[in-house]
Amino acid sequence: MPPNAHVPVPRATAWDRAAITVLGGAGCALSYDALQQMAIAIHVRPALTYLFPAVVDGFIAYGIRALLVLRTAPFRARLYVWTLFTTATAASIWANALHAIRLNQQTRTTGLHLGNTTVGILSTLAPLALAGAVHLHILITRHDAPAAQVPVPRPTETAQHPDSAPATDEPPAQDAEAEEAPSGQSPVEHARAEEHPAAIPDESVRRIGRPPSAELDDLLALARPVFAAHENPTRAVVRNRVRAAGHTIAEDRLTQIMTALRREQPGL
Fewer CB within 10 Å of terminal CB in the chain, N or C? Predict the structure, then answer.
């Protein structure tokens, strides 16, 4: 059979349910007869003897249902249900076995005569058949229940207004000074750093990374005319001028150039 072949799941038919009902009914009838005679033996009024087997075997039947329903309940609740179910089952088994043994002791037949132990064990089959039939009926009903249909979320479609602009991957435009601020530093902090510049690092200090494409003096000579031509020169203006000359410039070197040019023109 191919690995992806769908195997149909067998479903219970009406005959299955009928068989379980017959088995449970037969076990209930046999246990009912024995327990009703035990009710007479414990001096229950004849008009109420039918209630004794209903109470004992009723706890067995519904105890199984309660155990399945409360399987995820707190431990104390499950312990209470297990106690009721165990007590009712033990009482029914003991009463059926005692009833069969006492009758076996009082009966004298010329035919087949079984021992008390055998009679007692066989008499317990009726309450056990009742409990097993109820359990099977609950399991089959739960197996045949239609599986809950989990709604599959559909992919949401983004409705675009006809007048709205198409979405692009470009980030929103920002202020020129904000874009030119070094990474991890706000524009305000960057402006304060330029107003109160620190000493220009010594060129003899070993640099980490790609070496500069031009000396600091050469870059200052390139940036000085464009710096003086603008009333409020920005880092972007100086950077564009250096790159237009075919050089690369890092943010640290650009800060050095801006600091040196502002020192040359204190009025800015």
Answer: N
Distances (CA, A) of 82 to 7, 89, 211: 37, 10, 81
Residue among 39, 90, 37, 44 nearest 63 (CA): 90
Q: Which is nearest to 103 in space by CA: 34, 199, 169?
A: 34
Q: Are 161 and 30 in contact (CB under 8 A)?
A: no
Tokens (6 digits) for 132: 């097993």
- Give pLDDT tens digits for 158-201: 444 445 444 444 444 444 444 444 555 555 555 555 555 544 44
Quote the CA–CA distance of 256 and 27 in Å, as a whole number.
99
Up-side HSE of residue 114: CA atoms within 13 Å toward CB?
Answer: 13
Contact 241, 219 (CB under 8 A): no
Report the pLDDT averaged over residues 150-154: 51
For the chain, the C-alpha Rg in angstroms (whole number) is 47
| Rounded CA separation 120/98 (Å) | 7
Spatial contact of 61 and 134, defined as CB atoms under 8 Å apart:
yes
Confidence at residue 145, expressed as pLDDT on a 0 to 100 scale: 65
- With H, G, I as helix, E, B as strand and everything else as coil, classify residue 168: coil
| Residue located via tokens 């690995």 | 3
The closest of 98, 99, 103, 96 to 126, measured between CA atoms, is: 96
Q: What angle do CA 196, 198, 201 make, to 5 degrees?
A: 155
User: What is the per-residue pLDDT across 225-255, written as a single tens digit (0 to 9) for each?
Assistant: 877 777 777 888 888 888 888 888 888 888 8
Taken in order 41, 43, 49, 55, is the CA torsion positive or negative?
A: negative
